[in-house]
Amino acid sequence: xxxxxxxxxxxxxxxxxxxxxxxxxxxxxxxxxxxxxxxxxxxxxxxxxxxxxxxxxxxxxxxxxxxxxxxxxxxxxxxxxxx
Length: 83
Prior knowledge:
72% of the residues lie in helices and 0% in strands. By secondary structure, the protein is an all-alpha fold.
């Protein structure tokens, strides 16, 4: 089953970010935990997981055509999944 790149990018972001969000909500449920809401204020975490992860996956799709000839010259063919 081949997953379109856009869906794969969104799925990867969700798999990476949703557990962090869920654990943060569980931790916030305990009032005596210091820094329970730090996850929600940290812009870097959201940028890393919701922007960077999908961009890396989409970049693979956009650059694999250019990297394929170079990898053949090096003797290491790109896998069929990066096509």
